[in-house]
Design goal:
With 346 residues, this protein is of the alpha/beta class. The protein is 32% helix and 27% strand. Strand 12, helix 9 and strand 13 form a beta-alpha-beta unit. The longest helix has 15 residues.
């Protein structure tokens, strides 16, 4: 089969590899589509110290089961696959926090389990039973389902932090994550969402795709603070979501949120870009700061249902489609801010 194999930083090769066999207790999937995620880009650029190389990345998978040893997942079924595989037995799993599983495995994240940037992928019964594998209707566009993986993380963050109707939300970053936070906040009924994006190309693209209230401001731009204060009668945003890998945005969020407001740090940053946080702001303004990471299988099912029901319009996000051989170009386009969501389509 053909696969895009990652050998090292900025070194992905389109080549012939051995087709995997169906595990005795699992399934063999023919890939239909696989989303390109910001974390894939980070791994491609050498920013993941735990990467096991060479490796086949890709963790936002839509495919067709071509061989199965599992009655609940028969051959011919179309399946949405997200990367999180919890053990099911640790304290966190037993208490409904599978995303914090002590023995968490991840599909297609260069950590030992090959993913969707290949024509076929094989998964064990343990992965299918404890992970995020969901059959979707035959007549639904498989490409659209890849958005569910990223949406799962966003939904997890917003439910855990309890964003509510009266809230004005400021999202820093207009990539896939930022735009998803905007759309899901609207689905949840929040009052208004403002998106700040420092990359002019990406800000314009988000606007063209129909995402509202997108401003070409950095998080440090005085105009952004002026805008937020104007919209809130001088209080500050009810919640600020850092949907970009920038330490400065995290520091600025504390100055943009109101007293007793909420700040969500979504996504990892390079330690070299970390900024000093003024913890006095957290103390005196009584700010609650949340971390947000991954999702549970239940949250993945709920996010997929948002896509399948049309509440979350995947086509609004998917701006670029690529052939597998052009994965490196997809990475470069994302780096340049030309893409909201890119998908490899087989």
């Amino acid at each position: 089969m053909k696969a895009a194999v990652l050998y090292g930083p900025n070194d992905v090769r389109y080549e012939e590899v051995k087709t995997p066999v169906c595990p005795e207790d699992g399934i063999l999937v023919k890939t239909i589509a696989c989303g390109i995620c910001g974390s894939d880009l980070r791994t491609y650029g050498g920013g993941t110290a735990s990467a096991v190389l060479p490796s086949i990345s890709g963790h936002e998978i839509a495919g067709e089961i071509v061989e199965s040893r599992m009655e609940a997942f028969p051959a011919g079924a179309k399946v949405s696959i997200a990367c999180t595989v919890a053990c099911g037995g640790c304290w966190y799993c037993k208490n409904g926090m599978q995303n914090q599983c002590d023995n968490l495995k991840s599909i297609g994240t260069a950590n030992g389990v090959d993913g969707g940037f290949a024509e076929y992928a094989a998964f064990t019964g343990e992965m299918v039973k404890n992970g995020c594998f969901n059959i979707f209707p035959e007549d639904f566009d498989p490409v659209d389902t890849v958005l569910a993986e990223t949406a799962s993380s966003v939904l997890n963050a917003q439910i855990n932090t309890n964003l509510v109707m009266e809230d004005l939300i400021l999202v820093i970053g207009a990539g896939t994550i930022g735009c998803l936070h905007s759309e899901i906040a609207k689905i949840r009924g929040t009052r208004e969402v403002v998106i700040a994006e420092m990359n002019e190309v990406k800000a314009e693209l988000a606007g063209k795709q129909g995402f509202a209230n997108v401003y070409n401001y950095s998080s440090s731009d005085p105009r952004l603070k002026e805008l937020v204060m104007e919209k809130t009668n001088g209080r500050g945003a009810d919640a600020v979501i850092c949907a970009c890998p920038a330490g400065q945005a995290q520091a600025d969020a504390l100055t943009l949120v109101r007293k007793r407001g909420k700040v969500i740090f979504f996504g990892g940053i390079n330690p070299k870009t970390a900024a000093v946080l003024d913890t006095n702001l957290i103390h005196y303004k009584e700010i609650t700061v949340y971390g947000a990471n991954a999702y549970s299988p239940e949250m993945n099912r709920r996010a997929l249902n948002l896509v399948l029901s049309g509440q979350l319009d995947a086509k609004k996000f998917i701006t670029h489609r690529y052939e597998l051989k052009d994965l490196a170009k997809g990475y470069e386009d994302i780096r340049a801010g030309k893409v909201i969501k890119g998908v490899i389509v087989f």
